[in-house]
């Protein structure tokens, strides 16, 4: 299987509750390596740009406001099959539907405040990584 990179974001509901380390332990336990990491306060423009694909959705403005409500940790995870593996470790978007032992089942507060973001395809991972990191900032 190919070594891939994916973009992960630890969302404001999780940084607020001091869960950064607990969440990153889940990634590392499953073999995902954190090869770049930065704590950021997103601006409205940055959050809108990142979630532009959702701009017609009813929850867009609320999502943008939530993503700017506190610091986030943006990071690049690397490993075999990293995109799909990260989605598996995260669990379903809605924590009510997430499987036992996933980050969202164990930590998410709601379908919006669901603790983590993860790219959904290798193509989107490349775009999302480039949104936050220069190649030189990623040390594998
Ligand atoms: P994903 O994060 O699991 O890939 P997406 O459907 O791409 O899920 O949605 C992006 C983010 O938008 C979700 O992680 C969540 O924070 C928020 N979101 C998705 N659906 C809803 C909703 O129905 N109400 C409120 N927020 C939502």
Please identify, by name, the CATH architecture.
2-Layer Sandwich
Q: What's the alpha carbon Rg, rounded to whole Å?
A: 14 Å
Helix fraction bin? 25-40%
| CATH class type | Alpha Beta
- What's the helix-strand series? EHHEHHEHHEH
The N- to C-terminal Cα distance equals: 17 Å
What's the story with the biggest beta sheet? Answer: 4 strands, antiparallel
Q: Number of DSSP helices?
A: 7
User: What structural class should be given to the helix and strand makeup?
Assistant: alpha+beta
Please mark out the parts with pLDDT under 50 across 5 or more consecutive residues, or reply none. Answer: none
How many structural units, i.e. domains? 1
Overall shape: globular
What is the overall pLDDT average? 98
User: What oligomeric state is this?
Assistant: single chain
Give the bound compounds: inosine-5'-diphosphate
Number of strands: 4
For the biggest β-sheet, the strand order reads 2-3-1-4
- The CATH superfamily bears the name Nucleoside diphosphate kinase-like domain
Notes on the protein architecture:
- With 140 residues, the protein is α+β, with helices and mostly antiparallel strands.
- The protein has one domain: Nucleoside diphosphate kinase-like domain (Alpha-Beta Plaits), CATH 3.30.70.
- Helix content is 39%, strand content 20%.
- The chain has 7 helices and 4 strands.
- The chain has helices at 12-16, 20-29, 44-50, 60-67, 82-90, 103-107, 122-132, and strands spanning 3-10, 33-40, 72-80, 116-118.
- It has a 4-stranded antiparallel β-sheet.
- The two termini are 17 Å apart.
- The chain binds inosine-5'-diphosphate (IDP).
- Its cofactor is Mg(2+).
- One of its GO terms (molecular function) is nucleoside diphosphate kinase activity.
- Major role in the synthesis of nucleoside triphosphates other than ATP. The ATP gamma phosphate is transferred to the NDP beta phosphate via a ping-pong mechanism, using a phosphorylated active-site intermediate.
- Its main location: cytoplasm.
- Belongs to the NDK family.
